[in-house]
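Record Probable transcriptional regulatory protein SM124_22680, 239 aa.
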Amino acid sequence: MGRKWNNIKEKKASKDANTSRLYSKFALEIYVVAKQGEADPELNQALKFVIERAKTYNVPRVIIDRAIDKAKGGSDENYSELRYEGFGPSGSMIIVDALTNNVNRTASNVRAAFGKNGGNMGVSGSVSYMFDATAVIGIEGKNSEEVLELLMEADVDVRDIIEEEEAVIVYAEPDQFHAVQEAFKNAGITEFTVAELTMLAQNDVTLAEDAQAQFEKLIDALEDLEDVQRIYHNVDLGE
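=>
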């Protein structure tokens, strides 16, 4: 599963931070999750997860609190969660998750981004069957053997444990996300380099230089859409 997780995460975080897109996307996600359930993260596991994830991207606490306060204020904004699937250059596969208050606008914008950048939309299920929903949790300060021992003592099953640069990355079933985090927290580890529920491709593909350039242009176009929250793909972008 060596996806160079931290490299991918850092590139995206750096790019998003420069345009403030990252903060806006997290603010919306936190607002929606808080509005759908309790506004207290201790009573709303979904909200707690989003906040934990936001912390790994260094989202300021003031933005998190503002989004929660907005949900508490009884705003009547309603958002739908949507997933689009499609193909990029050379058969690359892409999954796009969105939050929107205008389904028609979002569908049109996502379709246009694919169409103008060498891709095309697929039907539901045309791509996702080649991806696995996965919990990804990363820490620093321990090696893979120490992490394995820690998780075994906590009776937590995981798929894989990999050392990537200075971090240890744990890959687990989605329903084990909180169990892995709790095992770390009980061992005194409270800072995470990554804490995600994501979609990992079963097999990565490497594109020729021209196809990769077009693929990256397509991803940029999708990321620029305000309704798009997350993008998953099967392309190995290298270092």
